[in-house]
Every structure is written in structure tokens, then in C-alpha cells.
Amino acid sequence: MDYTVTPLGEIAPTVAAARAAFVTGSTRPLAWRRAALERMRDLVQDREARLLDALAADFGKPRFEAWTTELGFVVNDINHTLAHLPAWVQPEKVPTPVSFKPGASYIVPEPVGVVCVIAPWNYPVQLLLAPMVAAIAAGNAVVAKPSELAPQAAAELVSLVQAINEPAIVAVQGGVAETTELLAQRFDHILYTGNSRVARIVMRAAVEHLTPVTLELGGKSPAIVSRNANVDIAARRIAWGKFVNAGQTCIAPDYVLVERPVHDEFVAALGAQINDFYGADPQQSADYTRIVNSPHFHRLEKLLDSGTVAHGGITDADSRYISPTVLTGVSADDPVMGEEIFGPILPVIAVDTLDEAIEFVSSRSADGDKPLALYTFSENDAENDRVLAGATSGGACVNGTLLHIANPNLPFGGTGESGMGAYHGKFGFDTFSHHRSVHTRSTRLDPAMLYPPYTAKKQKLVRKGMTMADPRDTLSKLRNKLRRG
Ligand code: NAD
Q1: Class of domain 222-409 (CATH, top level)
Q2: How far apart are CA 22 and CA 168, in angstroms?
Q3: 386-418 pLDDT tens trace
Q4: What does R_g of the chain's alpha carbons equal in angstroms?
Q5: Phi, psi for 136 (deg, rounded to 5)
Q6: For the segment 154-181, what is each residue's pLDDT rounded down to a tens digit?
Q7: What residues are labeled active site?
Q8: What is the mean pLDDT of residues 122-131?
Q9: Residue 108 neighbours by CB under 8 Å, 6+ apart
Q10: Residues enclosing ligand 1, CB less than 6 A?
Q11: Model pTM?
């Protein structure tokens, strides 16, 4: 399919058209939201072959991975949303203080307006459509912008968005110039997924219109392997999490800190796992992805100079192939530890103690570099708890990798340099909703306590009323006391 850039002059009118559709109120009814989501789901399913072909053409994404991590993910996300949406849209009744009675209080979720979704190239389908699902579920108009670096997928996605055939759901195609023009428009929320340099550009643009942003970024996500880990399982799950999509995954384990007594066993197990997954020559495997473009290929090739290659290290510039690679003897100052790797290169660093590993990660966090994901491997629960308590991250998985992102009941988002805000499931609905406070008062009574003239008697009554213990607070205090024992 042809990749056609949106003319710059068409971008402002496209956004204006989405806003005009929103202003009519057409996107608010539950029926509209359901129909749009069902239509999107049908299109993803009907166009499965086209989408999988596009992902294979862009960077050799295996069809199994493309379906599980992208198309299947989106279909599951839509099904989960459709099942829960009728409950999510309900106003939530909350307690009203006795002194405000007779009256009632509600939190009412409202659409914010026009949402802009800017997606990256590495999971082009999931990372464009999943935020759109949340924005539509919350009753918003959406302007979607796929990444120009996966052009075949981008062309398919723009065509899919157009086929939803709703004036409030539109797409813009292009790269830096088009996104710059897009960001000059006023939105009511922007969700950007990509690197932290561009995130700063997005946030600066949002400041002009006081637009809230959700930033889904990356960084160096560590895996920590204890001497008490099941080493074979740790190696298998880390190898899978790292080499899926050839390491071009925001939550891929970026590097491993392993306790010295199991270092050699772990490195050997990683090599064995790579052979099991992709055979002796992964270049021949139909299950292994290529690097997205030449600049990324050459950037990654340079990182192979850090430490010693324990496994892999083979490259082919013509096909942008880098074999699944394990590096050992890497030091914290090596280039491979200086930036997010975002490719199939896994440095393994030996540490003397778990505390040394925790200190390594938490000192980087203290410098602002809080990871998007953290993985801890031990058969000893107390050790995993120590790692989780000692080092923060956007999300975490114990004795596993990646899978925390696939549970729609968990929020997905970063912290510090790895991002701000979150989505998935109800959290996405909340991200794109304004939670409006509504207090309704009865007109049967209208005590004059708050109205001038402010007499001493009124002051006494108001002071008493406002400082009187709420029975619910007293109950809550009691419960906490019981919990503490
Ligand atoms: P990318 O190059 O595709 O860029 C992302 C988007 O930003 C694209 O739509 C692109 O057109 C736009 N863009 C690029 N330069 C711009 C500019 N100067 N002004 C305005 N817009 C611009 O993707 P990328 O940034 O290479 O993505 C990889 C990064 O994203 C990694 O750091 C990865 O960890 C992170 N990531 C995070 C998540 C997450 O969910 N947290 C998911 C995937 C990737």
C-alpha cells in the first residue's frame, strides 16, 4: 500500500473537523462508543493478513509475534473495554458530609474533547490503536498519527482509521514536519509514545494550550537474577523478553545484573535458550525480526564493542540483521550501558550481592533515570520483595518479563524519564476522562448558616459543624487500628 504524507495545509482542517464532530455531542452516547470500537475490532480482524504483511515488510516481524503482541492485543483490549464500559461510564455516588445534607454527591466521567495519539514504529498497530481504544471508550474525538519509520504499517493504519468511517476519528500521516504542524493545533489531551527527546518537544508544544500529556517513554529496564533464582527459567524468560521483536521493545530487559555464583551458569543457559528459540543460525529463522532501519542498525553495531561477546555478535548490514547477542565483562561506563539499547544485545553484569544490584539501579533512578520495567528473579519471595522495595520502576514482573503489560487490569506507564501517566483498561478510560464533581442540593431545606450577616451564633454552629468527626472517618480509623492489631 502507498504511504502518502498528509499535506501540511490539510492538518489544521483535519483537527478542526474532528473537533466539529465532537462539539455536536455525537461521540458521547455509549452506543456510539460501542459501535466505533466494534467497527475497529472488525477491521483489525478482517484486515489481519494485510496488517501482518505490512509488519513483515517493514522490519520482518514474524506473523506469530505480530498477531500476539499487536493485533491480538488490540482485539483483547477492545473486548475487555466493551465488557466493562457500561459500568465505567456510570456516575459514581460518593458520601456527602452530614452538614451538607440533604444533598448527594457524584463523580461523573466526561470526555475531555479531542485527543491526539502519536505512535512509534516498534509496535505500530498496538501503540496507535490501544490508546485510541481508550480515548474512544471515554467518548472523545481522536486524531491519530502513526510513525513514518514503519511506513507499510502506517499506510495500513491510516486506511483502517478512515474505514471506521466516523468524522470524529481521523488520522494524519507523516514525520517530523507533519507532527510539528499537528502539535501546533489545540488538543484536550495528547498521548505520545516514543523517545524522551521528542517527548520534551511534545510537552513544550502542549504547554502553549495547557494541554495535559501522557508520555509513554523508554529507558534501561534492568533484570536482576539472584543466586537463589531458577536459573534456567530466568534465562528462558529473559531471552524471550529480550529477543522478541529483536529487542525493539520499550519494556525489554535492557541489561542483567546477576549474582556472581550463578553468572556462568546463567550465561550458558542464555546461549542454550537462544539456540532453542532460533536455531544455530538465527538469520535463517522465520521467527526473528530485523532492525527497523540503517541508522538504528549502525547505532547498535557500535554497541557490540562493549565487553566480550559470549553469544552471537553476528551482523549483516544488507538485511539489517543482528544476531541475538549476549555480552559479558561489561562495565557501567561502557557505551552499551550509556543509553537504552533497543536492540538484540544483552549485557550481563556480575554483582557480588543483591544489595549491590539494588544500589546500581536505585542510584541511576536517583539521577532521574527511573526504568519503565524492572524484573526480579528469585525463588525466595523476600528477595524479590527487597528488590521491588529498593528500586522503583514504571511496572515490574517477578520471575517473568513483559507480561505485566498484557493484563488489562494493571495500569501501563512510566515514571521519571520513562514517562508520565498511564493507560490500559480502566486506567485508559480514566486518562481520557475528566472526572467531574457534581453535588446536588435539595431545596426542601435552606439553613442560613453560611449566609451573611455572619453572627457569632452562626460562627459557633459552622465551626462545630465543620470540625465534627464524620462517622465514616471514625469507622475508617477503627478499621486501621484493627488492621495494625
Ligand atoms: P519514532 O521515531 O517512531 O517516534 C515516535 C513518534 O514521534 C513518531 O510518530 C514520530 O513521527 C514522532 N516524532 C519524531 N520526531 C519528532 C519531532 N522532532 N517532533 C515531533 N514528533 C516527532 O519512535 P522512537 O522514538 O524511536 O521510539 C522508540 C522509543 O520509544 C524507545 O525509547 C522506546 O523505549 C519508546 N517506547 C515506549 C513505549 C511505551 O509504551 N512506554 C512503547 C514503545 C516505544
Answers
A1: alpha beta
A2: 6
A3: 999 999 999 999 999 999 999 999 999 999 999
A4: 26
A5: -70, -45
A6: 999 999 999 999 999 999 999 999 999 9
A7: 216, 250
A8: 98
A9: 91, 435, 436, 438
A10: 118-122, 127, 145, 147-149, 175-176, 179-180, 193-195, 198, 201, 216-218, 250, 340, 342, 372, 414, 419
A11: 0.96
Q: How far is the CA of 196 from the centre of ligand 1 (A)?
A: 8
| Ligand 1 atom showing the smallest separation from residue 418 Cα | 41
Domain 8-217+424-434 listed as CATH 3.30.2290.10: no
Nearest alpha-carbon partner for 146 in 116, 103, 111: 116
Burial classification of residue 286, based on how many CB atoms lie within 10 Å of its CB (0-12 exposed, 13-18 middle, 19 or more buried): exposed
Q: Any idea which residue has 460562627 for its cell?
A: 459
Q: Which three cell numbers stand for residue 430?
A: 480514566
Residue ranges covered by each domain of the chain: 8-217+424-434, 222-409, 450-484
Mutate-to-test residue for ligand 1 from 217, 393, 402, highest number of ligand atoms within 8 A of CB: 217
Closest residue CA from atom 28 of ligand 1: 194
Which three cell numbers mark 341?
A: 539499547
User: For residues 18 and 52, is the Cβ–Cβ distance under 8 A?
Assistant: no
Grid cell, residue 23, equals 462539539
